[in-house]
Design goal:
This protein has helices at 3-6, 14-18, 41-46, 51-55, 57-64, 132-147, 186-194, 198-212, 222-244, 294-313, 317-328, 330-346, 357-375, 380-391, 396-399, 405-416, 422-428, 436-447, 452-461, and strands at residues 23-25, 35-39, 75-77, 81-83, 86-88, 96-103, 109-115, 154-166, 170-180, 246-247, 269-270. The protein is an alpha+beta fold and 491 residues long. The protein folds into 2 domains: 3-180, no CATH class; 184-431 and 475-491, no CATH class. The strands form 4 sheets. Strands 2-8-9-7-6 form a 5-stranded antiparallel sheet, sandwiched between helices. Strands 1-3 form a two-stranded antiparallel ribbon. Strands 4-5 form a two-stranded antiparallel ribbon. α7 packs parallel to α10, α9 runs parallel beside α12 and α18 (436-447) runs antiparallel to α19. The two termini are 36 Å apart.
């Protein structure tokens, strides 16, 4: 494909143009020997980009930020954030660049963003680079999340740079090209608020409303409506994480999106054995972001957003507090409703009126299944998938996973009496997730130059609900010798 054909795709610099105080123009570091490792052709089509062009030498340079197409305005974004509870007034894209926005095939504006593209003015002591393993982790896990139907940033490509990067050892460098509805975060609002520039804060909120929550513009108080919309989006998102056993690992306020998409797949993982205290981040020594803490932390992060937005909600900030607190108070109810509804579906149970006898029975069954999971090391994903088989009459696989057989039999008797729908269960309980031992196996192979395990893993997790012959090992739990699992962010 010729470069002329590329001009049919127009980049915009809307963020850089509308919020220049939060955008530092910058260029990506040149890659000496670029090589395309993985490429998301389906996503390229969705974005209106030509896959043939992106595989060409010039297209690969675009994916690295070394070729800047017409209309693109690469910038490092400024933001603040609470990291593990401690506030940093200036974080920003230390190793990332926003190339610009493009309109996808449905006319939606999407960010094209690079991770690992070199040092920026926000890099502090970091080298601004990334290595193959963590970039492929984000590619695999983000695409798995998309296939599970969970809002997420997406991965377009991982390109090896040909430059070794020093970590504990020398590792091959890489850049991830990812796509998002935007990269606006709670930390973006914290940064704008910290500047004491209310005009900037207002323009940021207007930008967020236009891109993500346009109905808020029609509300009596658009900025309060924006905050309420973010509360709802995050309540829904975190409930979906909990339902599939996903542990984000770094729920800092700079990793909480205004759009309600999952962002930043650093030290993340899916639970193997059910464990409310599950932590997979090497730096989360206190378990702040453990599996069961995620809803609590999400609410805390949203409180920080409320604080940043108070001057917009009411010119007298004291009068802004009450409506902000009231809007934040909806989080727990919305999260609980979303999680409970999701658990009913995982158990194949129909919707029932709140407070009805059927609803009370459903609540008891949900509490009962959580008690079974807590009682012993039960593989979370396998257990719910096996319950689908139990609903079809084959109880043995699920029963064989628990320690207290009498408790299982009593619970299963009550559950089966409700005639659960196994087809419904199979539509929400995945067979395949990015199993931690398989992710590590694939990343280690890719770091050594063998991409086949990554390709096979992607094949499995890209259709997570459809059981297929030949993929049996991708549905199996971790081997006994896998041990305690920890992940690292790769910086």
């Amino acid at each position: 494909m010729t470069a002329a054909a590329e001009s049919t795709v127009t980049f915009d610099g809307r963020f850089a143009r509308e919020l220049a105080e939060m955008a530092v123009p910058w260029q990506a570091e040149e890659a000496p020997e670029p090589k395309l490792l993985v490429f998301n052709e389906a996503l390229a089509h969705e974005l209106g980009l030509d896959p043939g062009y992106l595989r060409s030498p010039e297209g690969i340079r675009l994916l690295l930020g070394n070729h800047v197409p017409e209309g693109a305005t690469p910038v490092a974004q400024a933001y603040a954030g609470h990291q593990f509870g401690g506030y940093s007034p200036l974080l920003g894209d230390g190793r990332a660049l926003l190339l610009g926005e493009i309109a996808d095939a449905n006319g939606r504006l999407r960010d094209v963003h690079l991770k690992g593209s070199g040092r920026t003015p926000f890099a502090r002591a970091g080298d601004g680079r990334a290595v193959v393993g963590p970039m492929l982790r984000e590619y695999v896990v983000s695409e798995a999340m998309h296939a599970l139907g969970i809002p997420t940033t997406r991965s377009l490509a991982v390109v090896a740079t040909g430059r070794p990067v020093r970590r504990d050892e020398m590792l091959p460098g890489a850049v991830l090209a990812r796509v998002a509805s935007s990269h606006l975060r709670v930390g973006s609002f914290q940064y704008a608020r910290a500047t004491d520039n209310i005009d900037l804060l207002r323009r940021l909120a207007d930008h967020a409303i236009a891109r993500h929550h346009p109905a808020a513009a029609e509300a009596e108080n658009p900025y309060l409506a924006l905050f309420s919309s973010v509360v709802s989006a995050q309540a829904s998102l975190v409930a979906q994480w909990m339902l599939v056993g996903f542990v984000h690992g770094v729920m800092n306020t700079d990793n909480v999106t205004i759009s309600g998409e999952t962002i930043d797949y650093g030290p993340c993982a899916f639970m193997d054995a059910f464990n409310p205290a599950a932590v997979y981040s090497s730096i989360d020594v206190g378990g702040r972001y453990a599996y069961a803490n995620q809803p609590v932390v999400a609410e805390w992060n949203l409180a920080r957003l409320a604080e940043a937005m108070l001057p917009l909600i009411h010119e007298d900030q004291e009068q802004a507090v009450a409506p902000a607190v009231e809007a934040l108070g909806e989080f727990r109810k919305q999260y609980s409703n979303a999680w409970f509804s999701g658990m009913k579906t995982k158990l194949g149970l129909p919707e029932s009126p709140a407070g009805s006898p059927e609803d009370e029975t459903t609540s008891e069954l949900v509490d009962g299944v959580i008690a079974l999971l807590k009682d012993g090391p039960v593989d979370y994903t396998q257990f719910f998938r096996n319950l689908g088989g139990a609903a079809r009459g084959n109880v043995r696989p699920a029963r064989g996973m628990v320690l207290d057989l009498a408790a299982f039999d009593a619970w299963a008797g009550r559950w089966l009496a409700t005639n659960p729908d196994p087809d419904l269960m199979d539509r929400v309980n995945p067979v395949y997730i990015p199993r931690n031992h398989l992710v590590e196996e694939a990343l280690a192979a890719a770091t050594g130059g063998d991409l086949d395990p990554v390709t096979r893993l992607l094949e499995a997790v890209s259709a997570p609900y459809s059981e297929r012959p030949g993929l049996e090992r991708y549905a199996e739990g971790a081997p006994e010798d896998f041990g305690t699992y920890m992940t690292f962010c790769g910086t």
